[in-house]
Amino acid sequence: MSIEEPGKKEVPLTNLKDGESGIVVSVKSGYGRAWGLKKRLMDMGITPGTKITVVKTAPFHGPLEVIVRGYRLAIGRGMAEKIFVKVERVE
Amino acid sequence: MSEKKLVIALAGNANVGKSVIFNYLTGLHQHIGNWPGKTVEKAEGTLHFKGYRIDIIDLPGIYSLSTYSIEESISRRYIAVEKPDAVINVVDASILERNLFFTLQLMELETPMVIALNQIDVAKKKGIEIDVEKLSEILGVPVIPTVAIKGIGIFKLLDKAVEVAGKKTRPKKVEYGEDFENAIRKIEESFIDYDLPYPRRYVAIKILERDKEIEEEVIQKNPGIISIAKEVGKKLEEKYGHSCPTLITSERYRIAGCIAREVQKIISPPRPTLAEKLHEVTTHKVLGYLVMGIILLSMFFFVFAFGNLLSETLSNLLYGLKPFLTFILETGFLGELFWGGIVEGLIAGATIALPYVIPFYIALYILEDSGYVSRVAFLMDNAMHKMGLHGKAFIPLILGYGCNVPACLGCRIMETQRERLIAAFATTLIPCAARTVIILGLVGRFIGIQWALVLYVFNLIIIFLLGRLAFKALPGEPTGLIMEMPDYRLPHLKTVLKQTWFRLAEFLKIALPLIIVATFTVKLFEEAGLLEAVNTVLSPVTVRWLGLPEAVGVSLIFGVLRKELALIMLANLLGTTDFSYVLTPIQMVVFTIVSMFYIPCIATIATCVKEFGWKKSFFLTVFEILFALALGGIVFRVLSILVNLF
Ligand SMILES: Nc1nc2c(ncn2[C@@H]2O[C@H](COP(=O)(O)OP(=O)(O)OP(=O)(O)O)[C@@H](O)[C@H]2O)c(=O)[nH]1
Ligand SMILES: [Mg+2]
Questions:
Q1: Residue B415 and residue A36: Cβ atoms within 8 Å?
Q2: DSSP string covering B454-513
Q3: How far is the CA of B535 from the centre of ligand 2 (A)?
Q4: Class of domain B178-266
Q5: How far is A4 from chain B (nearest CA, A)?
Q6: Cα of B46 to ligand 1 centre, how many Å?
Q7: What residues contact B27, with CB distance under 8 A and at least 6 apart?
Q8: At A6, phi and psi to the nearest 5?
Q9: What is the CATH number of domain B4-167?
Q10: Which residues of A touch B239 (CB under 8 A)?
Q11: Which of B254, B306, B433, B466 is the most buried (most CB within 10 A)?
């Protein structure tokens, strides 16, 4: 039996399965309004180094429900794709 | 002796209980519910306390002192520029870390402040215990534990706020990490002739954060500073590998986290509570939608059943009194006028409108105060994207069922002007409580409850289609959903009843006099023979195109004032509240559909003008009139054909 080195991979939040957690690495954004949204995400506590848990994903590419800093947050899929996290995962 | 004056503002994250405290202190009626973003504009109230005349200011809830949203701008401008004598920072004790992130920013403004450690009852239930004294010591700010809905701690809170305002006590300085402190100091020291109306340190941090507004103010007076800040910031960015705004936000959160960990003890390990299980079910992929259907249906039936019962009881009672009243009042012209104007108007108002309004608001406020609203927004995110919006836009739609006016204001929770406009457009088409009166009181009562339900569904489909059209007309990429979902809680009965009562009082104060005046006017017009003239002029549309009785013309005009007036005046003009004698079922349906869509009432139009300007509101109004008339005519023809077929 061979297990690959448990690698830390950097993936968008949307790649996480329900119940999985990761550590935020960065929130990607453009300029203008998108920047405002990135700022909003960070103001709500999604800053680099924060643990974030995906509780569930709504069907048909719906929003994600996450737990961050002890409270429950709904994030639209488009936004969640811009949040990059590190997960410890055995592939 | 004249009273001394003080201004105290309530600030904090969304949904922490600011408005509950505000209402408690001032006796006013700010909207309360368990979802974030209810207060969208600052509100003022006064109270007298210990020889002071205190103005209390309720501010919109925000997560940060930046200016990316309207609420943030309003709150920041008030606290930083208008400068209250003291700020009461309301903090949700059950989400301490995130709340402290905001507290730290407030402290940078150096305004005298007090912390209301609110919802400690909720925190306790979650097994969180907070060392109040330690927190107060670390921050250098008085901390008062409160349970706002029960009024616990509020007196002490006010007392402390007055005290710090009087002494002008400044909060402690929050120390950032060493590298940051060096950077901040360097910027602070570079100011020459500092004369901005904010603390120097605050400005230094803000320009390091690249806050546009502060940067502009600084450029006007000290242009050199910006380049220094850029330089200093660059070093930080190189060292830590993130942009400065990100770094400062992270740093603040780091400090907030440290403080939170230091002062709070999580006693019992969190286990799934009933609230969490409810959350599971109501946001479930499949069950969630099912439950939503069931909840909305039961709400509908509750309102209808309760409303009918009340309507009949009131009718019997009031019409029972009628002979008695006519006996007292002399007859003749004046008697007629008086009887027709006041008594008929009152009876119509009380029997047609009130019965449905009461149970409706009770149901709506229970829904709001439980926390269900944000779950619906979560479930509807997808559907709303089809209209170029996101889930949060469903909240003003829900509020719209109550009254379109606050709902249109509530559209401010959307991020861009385009989204706000589309959301407001959809909101004005939602049948508000007044239109519910027409739907339930006419179609529901005289044709059948299932047909009323069909009309509601029909209405939603039309809104969805029009929303898509509006999206096509105003294209743009929808912003994404970012929304806190607060824990469920047992609706606070007193709050629910109070808000319902307030609505009712509003109805009695505004609608009833209006109904009376309208009835009066109609009687006068009738005597003068003008009624005929108006109705005749409108008859090509009302009679020929819509297939309705002539009297509808005048009643629809009155409906512009308040939607329920359309039905009440119709009752008046046709001389009965039993519509089954005077209207065919098809006529009832057509009349209801036209009333549902034809124009936002005058108060809603005024709100739209305020939010979006004359031009857009005018366009919206004209569109809705034409659309409703077109739709009404089509429905009339389709239904007539169908009836003939079967
Ligand atoms: N259990 C409990 N509930 C509270 C307490 N204070 C407020 N609430 C509830 O918290 C919810 C939010 O209260 P609001 O006063 O509307 O909150 P707000 O801070 O004005 O919120 P926004 O205007 O949306 O920013 C309501 O459902 C209140 O009933 C408290 O001390 N204990
Ligand atoms: Mg509020």
A1: yes
A2: HHHHHHHHHHHHHHHHHHHHS--PPPPPEEE-PPP----HHHHHHHHHHHHHHIIIIIHH
A3: 46
A4: mainly alpha
A5: 30
A6: 20
A7: B45, B47
A8: -60, 105
A9: 3.40.50.300
A10: none
A11: B433
CA distance B384 to B372: 17
Q: Is A81 on the interface with B (CB under 8 A)?
A: no
Q: B382–A73: do the CB atoms touch at under 8 Å? A: no
B46 has pLDDT over 60: yes
Which residues of chain B have a CB within 8 Å of the CB of A42? Answer: 245-246, 249-250
* A83: CATH: 2.30.30.90
Task: Convert the pLDDT of each residue in B375-420 to its tens digit.
Answer: 999 999 999 999 989 999 999 999 999 989 999 999 999 988 899 9
- Contacts for B322 with CB less than 8 Å, ≥ 6 apart: B343, B347
Asked whether B6 and B55 are in contact (CB, 8 A), the reply is yes
**CA torsion, points B152, B158, B159, B161, in degrees to nearest 10?**
130
Angle between helix B96-108 and helix B200-208 axes, rounded to 10 deg: 120
Residue numbers of the domain that contains A40: 10-88
Report pLDDT for A34.
Answer: 63
User: Which residues, other chains included, contact B484 with Cβ-Cβ below 8 Å and sequence gap of 6+?
Assistant: A44, A71, A72, A73, A74, B14, B15, B36, B374
* pLDDT one-digit tens code per residue, A5-29: 445 678 999 999 999 999 999 998 7
Domain boundaries, chain B: 4-167, 178-266, 287-480+493-511, 530-645
Alpha carbon B503 to its chain centroid, in Å, reads 13
The answer as to whether A4 is a domain residue is no
Partners of B4 in beta bridges: B52
A51 in contact with B at a CB cutoff of 8 Å?
no
* Rounded distance from Cα A58 to ligand 2 centre (Å): 29
Helices assigned H by DSSP within B349-439: 354-370, 372-379, 381-385, 394-400, 404-410, 417-428, 433-438
Question: Helix, strand, or coil here: A89?
Answer: strand
Domain count, chain A: 1
